[in-house]
Amino acid sequence: MTRTIAVLNGPNLNRLGKREPEIYGHTTLAEVEAMCRDAAGEDMILFHQTNYEGQLVEWIHEATDSAADGIIINPAGLTFTSIPVLDALKMFPGPIIELHISNIHRREPIYHRSLVSSVATAVVAGLGARGYSTAVRCMRDLLGD
C-alpha cells in the first residue's frame, strides 16, 4: 500500500549547503530531497520548500485535504513565531514529525521554544541533513503497514 508523506520546508532552507555550513552542513536541499525519496521506498514523497509563511500554510492545507498520510515539517524560523503554521498543523489528522537540522536546544535561547512541538507527534533535531531520512523512516513506522 503506497502512502503519501509531505515533507515541508520553511524559510532559508533553499540555501542549504551555503548557509552557515558550520551549523547546517554542506548538504544541499536537492540532496536532502533525494535522501527522502530513497528512504521512502514505495511511499510517495511530496517535497516542498518556501520562504513564505502563507505558502507553507497552503501546503499544510493541501496535505490535510488531499489525505496525505503524514507530514514531516522543518518550519525553520517559523517554528518559533508562526501561529498560522501551528493552527494549520492542528487540522492535520495524521502524524506530524517536526524536524530541525541543528539541535535547537543547544543554540541561542530564542531557538528553544517551538510552537510546532505542541502538535508534533515526534521531534527530530540535531542529526544534520541525515535527520530527514531518519524522519522518513520513522514516519513509515508510525504509519504502519
Q: Structural class per helix/strand content?
A: alpha/beta
Tally of helical segments:
5
CATH superfamily caption: Dehydroquinase, class II
Number of strands: 5
Distance between the first and last residues' Cα: 8 Å
How many domain modules?
1
> Roughly what fraction of the amino acids lie in strands?
15-25%
Helix amount, in percent?
25-40%
In sequence order, what are the helices and strands, one letter per element?
Answer: EHHEHEHEEH
**How would you characterize the largest beta sheet?**
5 strands, parallel
Arithmetic mean of pLDDT? 94
Output the CATH topology. Rossmann fold
Shape: globular
Low-confidence stretches: none
Q: Supply the CATH architecture.
A: 3-Layer(aba) Sandwich
- The radius of gyration over CA amounts to 14 Å
At the first level of CATH, the class is: Alpha Beta
Strand order of the largest sheet: 2-1-3-4-5
Site (Transition state stabilizer): 19
Subunit structure: Homododecamer.
GO biological process, one term: quinate catabolic process
Enzyme class: lyase
Overview of the structural elements:
The protein has one domain: 3-Layer(aba) Sandwich (Rossmann fold), CATH 3.40.50.9100. It starts with a strand and ends with a helix. A five-stranded parallel β-sheet has the order 2-1-3-4-5, with helices on both faces. The chain has helices at 21-24, 29-40, 53-65, 83-90, 130-143, and strands at 4-9, 44-49, 70-74, 96-100, 122-125. The protein is 35% helix and 18% strand. By secondary structure, it is α/β, with parallel strands linked by helices. Its EC number is 4.2.1.10. Pathway: Metabolic intermediate biosynthesis; chorismate biosynthesis; chorismate from D-erythrose 4-phosphate and phosphoenolpyruvate: step 3/7. The active site is at residues 24, 100. One of its GO terms (molecular function) is 3-dehydroquinate dehydratase activity.
